[in-house]
Design brief:
This protein has three helices and five strands; from the N terminus they run E-H-H-E-E-H-E-E. By secondary structure, the protein is of the alpha+beta class. Strand 2 and strand 3 form a beta hairpin.
Amino acid sequence: MTTMSAERTALRSLSAVAGARQAARTFLGALCQPAIGREQADTVVLVVSELVANALRHGGGAYTLRLAVHPGTIEVAVEDPSPWMPRMRAPALVEGTGGFGWHMVNDLSLATGVTSGPKGGKTVRALLPR
């Protein structure tokens, strides 16, 4: 089986997260048989949205999104220029300042990982069922 991949790079803008979601939907829609189910596609798009939003919020305002399909899985990778690794934290229920996203990404994914870039920054990966 061959793999398929797509890449999108953007700077902070009001439409950056929406653009990433659309890029993911376009990528998923182009998959050959077996096509991805609606529920799996929605999960991939949710993870893309969360990782891109975090890259914009905590990673310096720029990101590169990479999507790849492998036998049985979809890989979502988001690169940003910040060296700070994502961390689990208690959700801020009163302040409304977040804390839910990394938990959610880990719960929805088969595996997650973070690697430091050779010139700084990092890539956050999530492997999702196809």
